[in-house]
């Protein structure tokens, strides 16, 4: 692959929620594999600009930022067109953006439901649809961030779990419908990032998670990023699959 990001054959990856946390590591990892990176963000302007600056310092004109609020009607389609316009192509779509907060039954509002569906399910669907022709022209791929909670419900998070279960089926449905030109896969992270603040609750929760994970440790964002890089760059005969990256969490009850 050419070292020059300005050559038309240099591939481009759009990463939603790419400014922070797992999305940031995905951006860095794909950038190391020669991709130009489109960093989508909603409110994290400073983080997005900082990351783009870091990547562009490593390789000129290899990163750009794009803002969109998926709660707004038509945002996904607008973002898709902006992504194509920025570098002239899109080869990989990484649907990483996600809202996550509790919705205890009895207190779930339509606003809660719509908000969690917008980022977790609606945006991946309509971004994939809007970019389907472009990705097909590039023999590209889509990777969706699912969750272990798509299969194993998390108490007081019914709306979120439903959204992620939808992403799991979306992954398989798109893989069938967009084949053979576009591969579509998913990654289901387990416990990857804990809150940064130190507290007795956080320490106990970390211990509880570690005791349920076969590998007895919390995962790192790099575990997810390297798996996504594998699916994007090194897995031309894999589609319709959801890879659990959870340290063996799904082995236990």
Overview of the molecule:
- This protein is 45% helix and 14% strand.
- It is an alpha/beta fold.
- The chain contains 7 helices and 7 strands; from the N terminus they run βαβαβαβαβαβααβ.
- The longest helix has 28 residues, at 110-137.
- The N and C termini lie far apart (45 Å).
- α1 (21-32) crosses α7 (221-233) and α3 (75-87) packs parallel to α4.
- It has a 7-stranded parallel beta sheet with strand order 3-2-1-4-5-6-7, with helices on both faces.
- Mean pLDDT is 90; it is low at 1-7.
**CATH fold name, please?**
Rossmann fold
Number of structural domains: 1
Structural category is alpha/beta
Query: What do the pLDDT scores average to?
Result: 90
Helix content: 40-55%
Would you report the number of β strands?
7
Main β-sheet description: 7 strands, parallel
Main sheet: strand order? 3-2-1-4-5-6-7
List descriptors.
253 residues; alpha/beta; Rossmann fold; seven-stranded parallel sheet
Give the helix/strand layout.
Elements: E1 12-15, H1 21-32, E2 36-41, H2 45-58, E3 63-67, H3 75-87, E4 92-95, H4 110-137, E5 141-145, H5 158-178, E6 183-189, H6 200-212, H7 221-233, E7 242-245
Parallel strand pairs: 1-2, 1-4, 2-3, 4-5, 5-6, 6-7
Helix pairs in contact: 1-7, 3-4, 4-5
């Amino acid at each position: 692959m050419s070292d020059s990001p300005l050559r038309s054959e240099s591939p481009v990856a759009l990463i939603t929620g790419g400014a922070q946390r797992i999305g940031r590591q995905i951006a860095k990892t794909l950038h190391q594999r020669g991709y130009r990176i489109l960093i989508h963000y909603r409110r994290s302007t400073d983080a997005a600009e900082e990351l783009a600056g870091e990547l562009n310092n490593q390789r000129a004109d290899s990163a750009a930022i794009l803002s969109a609020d998926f709660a707004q009607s038509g945002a996904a389609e607008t973002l898709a067109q902006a992504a194509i316009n920025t570098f002239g192509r899109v080869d990989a779509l990484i649907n990483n953006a996600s809202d996550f907060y509790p919705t205890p039954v009895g207190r779930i509002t339509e606003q809660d439901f719509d908000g969690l569906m917008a980022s977790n399910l609606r945006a991946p669907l309509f971004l994939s649809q809007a970019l389907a022709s472009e990705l097909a022209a590039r023999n590209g791929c889509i990777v969706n961030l699912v969750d272990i909670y798509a299969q194993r419900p998390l108490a007081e998070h019914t709306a979120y779990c439903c959204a992620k279960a939808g992403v799991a089926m979306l992954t398989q449905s798109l893989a069938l419908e967009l084949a053979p030109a576009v591969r579509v896969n998913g990654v289901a992270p387990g416990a990857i990032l804990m809150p940064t603040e130190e507290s007795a609750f956080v320490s106990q929760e970390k211990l509880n998670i570690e005791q349920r994970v076969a590998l007895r440790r919390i995962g790192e964002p790099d575990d997810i990023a390297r798996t996504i890089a594998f699916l994007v760059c090194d897995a031309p005969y894999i589609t319709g699959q959801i890879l659990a990256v959870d340290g063996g969490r799904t082995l236990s009850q």
